[in-house]
Amino acid sequence: MKIERVTESLSLKRDLDSGTEQQRQAVLEILANVKKQGDEALLAYTEKFDGVKLASLKVSPEEIAAAYEVIDEELVCYIREARDNIYNYHRRQVRQSWITTETDGTILGQKITPLDAVGVYVPGGTAAYPSSVLMNVIPAQVAGVGRIAMVSPPGKDGKLPAGVLVAANECGVKEIYKVGGAQAIGALAYGTETIPRVDKITGPGNIYVALAKREVFGDVDIDMIAGPSEIVVLADGEANPAYIAADLLSQAEHDMRASSVLVTPSLELAERVAVEVEKQLATLPRKEIAAQSIRDYGAIYVTETMDQAIAAVNELAPEHLEIMTTDPMSIIGQIRHAGAIFLGENSSEPIGDYFAGPNHVLPTNGTARFSSPLNVDDFVKKSSIISYSKKAVLANGHKIAALARLEGLEAHARAVEERLKS
């Protein structure tokens, strides 16, 4: 793992999820066909891209029951416990509608309304992601969303991974569909004979899923365009190099484009971590993926001081930030940009991925500078409430009319002045 002195501006931002023009045109064609042909297009694309000919897009109760036969009962219990932790964390985010009244009879407020329908995309491919089910479904349920539809690409056997089905069932998801890729995003956005349209789509996917989400935004809402995973570890000289190396590799095995970075003022720690990364990498099952990630996007930055290290972290604005120092609580107040912050040597990033409760759908590619983890607010909309009394109109009508005329909108001014006449 390369070690560098911090001498210039740092950035994790990579133009890796914008896609090529050829990929974008392919996505546009898929979306157009799904919009026009519905289920017929979904079945055809599933056969073409996933190599399986389906008789039905919807997962049956029998398939869900069969999944429980595959998953160990103890693991089912762990899924339930993780579900409860995530639920308990997100229920604290719930906002209430509110109304306030003024002495002149004016009533102002805000009405919180859950979205009617949400689509959750759960990726497939090289791994199964039950955790993606929990993290996307539960905040929507806590928000009060009435209908949740889940889509995920089937395997060669025409089935979804057992863990994904169990997680969905444990969350009470009633609509589960065996379709992935850009075609699944099109189905959720426009609706087909089998899959009714939704109002918002959440969940990560490959470049085609990301491009499709970008294209349908406006017809529906989306959560974010997520890039490759990132971790930054901020450590002092007392940190455990084996822990740091393990956590850096936990992200590197995600994707060849994942970024794993250590920032420290200790050259000695930097050198020990570099050795430990190579040692642990040798025995990883996903060694080839992790090795390329470390080679292309991994780095150890050595600063002169801890203050400089903290400034570098804020500049990186990482998806995941681990603070491995003797007193992490003294540093957290200085962190301005990070999707999720893990404090202390026992708070390994995978704890947040799977079990602790906070959401693991996080801003990537520097967007933690202005955006937040997926949360309950993402699944509600806020309506303003305005009720003016006659007294309030008489007191303020001329002010409102004047402001309207300042903008050259005479009809606006007259609409208020019509009330003043009486």
From TrEMBL:
Substrate binds at residues 229, 251, 254, 320, 353, 407, 412. Keywords: Amino-acid biosynthesis, Histidine biosynthesis, Metal-binding, NAD, Oxidoreductase, Zinc. GO terms for molecular function: histidinol dehydrogenase activity; NAD binding; zinc ion binding. Its cofactor is Zn(2+). SUPFAM superfamilies: ALDH-like. Its EC number is 1.1.1.23. It catalyses: L-histidinol + 2 NAD(+) + H2O = L-histidine + 2 NADH + 3 H(+). PROSITE patterns: HISOL_DEHYDROGENASE. One of its GO terms (biological process) is L-histidine biosynthetic process. Binds 1 zinc ion per subunit. GO terms for cellular component: cytosol. Pathway: Amino-acid biosynthesis; L-histidine biosynthesis; L-histidine from 5-phospho-alpha-D-ribose 1-diphosphate: step 9/9. Zn(2+) binds at residues 251, 254, 353, 412. The active site is at residues 319-320. NAD(+) binds at residues 121, 183, 206. It comes from the Bacteria. Catalyzes the sequential NAD-dependent oxidations of L-histidinol to L-histidinaldehyde and then to L-histidine. Belongs to the histidinol dehydrogenase family. This is Histidinol dehydrogenase. The gene is hisD.
